[in-house]
Specification:
42% helix; 8-stranded parallel sheet; binds flavin mononucleotide; two-stranded antiparallel sheet; 2 domains; single chain; alpha/beta; 338 residues; Non-ribosomal Peptide Synthetase Peptidyl Carrier Protein, Chain A; TIM Barrel
Length: 338
């Protein structure tokens, strides 16, 4: 990888490799821990609403990991996570500042502001938060300044090229973020219209990189070492963040750092067991078996009968049943002589 891939956020220094991009429902502590072991430079929690943080902070009894009540648990870190980066979103500058203070008090090392999420319940027809704030650059700037002024820890932001292909104001947004005191910007090289898929636009990403002095991390569509190198070479971004390319393939971080990529299915099954254990240590058995079904489906690909096997993951109703199913995969692989 090219040599300008060194950057810092506050006291944290990063070199060659990639970070794990935030993904709701995916980048919880167990997955972040796994990605970190495999070389992710750092990772980011999924987006957390400032309203929810303030609400749940005042009702500590609601702090459980069960669905619907898990907001503050989303801020959990895994043992030894450093830096611990928590992503928040919201539209009201004062509430965002209040939530940021809580996040800082809870032990986060860095706060990341979400100005990129296209989910309907977040953007609320353009009047809400996430990527909708790209439509209101002065408000986006006010929110950012309000948070930066409220906390001692570094603040970063994640946004997109623009709201639509006809409204690519990523350069203006990046300049406002820089002027507000943000230390690093991650740019998802797509517009809101494109959601999380479709072609990335390196030309606009390069314009954004060239328009600010702070590090810009490129994101979007990276599935291999070559993809990462290509994005860095073509845009001059200081590093890359990987989202969907890490699902079922946390080894991508090792690969992008110059090491080995995805191992064979035997090792993937072992990793799936390990991931399951991390998950259950964090959340308890019930949530772990539910949530790990999708991860297992991502890991268990590429052997004869894999699709049929994935259909059976619903049978994994306890840790024991889950591990028994994985034993069955090992037996299938023995038979296939894999
Ligand atoms: C299921 C899912 C959930 C996501 N959740 C978040 C989120 O909470 N915060 C955020 O900034 N981006 C979120 N994203 C966007 C990713 O961080 C990333 O920008 C996007 O997937 C493009 O990168 P990729 O092509 O490497 O996946 C999400 C993406 C997906 C697919």
């Amino acid at each position: 990888m090219t040599d300008n891939t060194r950057y810092s956020i506050g006291r944290f220094n990063f070199g060659k490799g990639a970070s794990l991009a935030p993904m709701a429902g995916v980048t919880n502590p167990p997955f972040r821990q796994l990605c970190s072991e495999l070389g992710a430079l750092y990772s980011v929690t999924e987006l957390i609403s400032c309203h929810a943080i303030i609400y749940f902070e005042t009702k500590p009894k609601n702090r459980t990991k069960k669905r619907g009540e898990k907001t503050l648990a989303l801020m959990d870190h895994y043992k030894g996570e450093s830096p611990h980066v928590v992503q928040i979103y919201g539209r009201e500058p004062d509430l965002m500042a209040e939530a940021a203070k809580i996040v800082e008090r809870e032990g986060a090392d860095i706060i990341d502001l979400n100005f990129g999420c296209p989910a309907r319940k977040v953007i609320k027809n353009g009047n809400g938060s996430g990527v909708a704030l790209m439509l209101d650059p002065p408000l986006l700037e006010e929110i950012t300044r309000s948070v930066v002024n409220a906390v001692e820890i570094p603040v970063t932001a994640k946004t997109r090229l623009g709201y639509s292909k006809d409204a690519k104001n990523g350069v203006e947004i990046a300049q406002r973020l820089e002027a507000s005191g943000v230390e690093l910007i991650t740019i998802h090289a797509r517009t809101r219209e494109q959601g999380h898929g479709g072609d990335t636009d390196f030309e606009t990403l390069k314009n954004i990189v060239d328009a600010v002095k702070i590090p810009v991390i490129g994101n979007g569509g990276i599935k291999s070492y070559e993809d990462a190198e290509n994005m860095i070479e073509q845009t001059g971004c200081r590093g890359v963040a990987i989202g969907q390319g890490a699902k079922g393939n946390p080894w991508i971080f090792r690969e992008v750092a110059g090491g080995m990529g995805r191992p064979d299915i035997r090792d993937r099954v072992k990793t799936c067991r390990r991931h399951l254990q991390f998950f259950s240590d964090w959340s308890g058995e019930e949530l772990a078996v539910l949530e790990m079904r999708k991860h297992a489906a991502w890991y268990l690909k590429g052997f004869d009968g894999a699709a049929a096997f994935r259909n059976r993951l619903g049978e994994a109703t306890s840790l024991e049943r889950f591990n028994n199913l994985l034993d069955e995969v090992d037996l299938i692989l023995d038979k296939l002589n894999v």
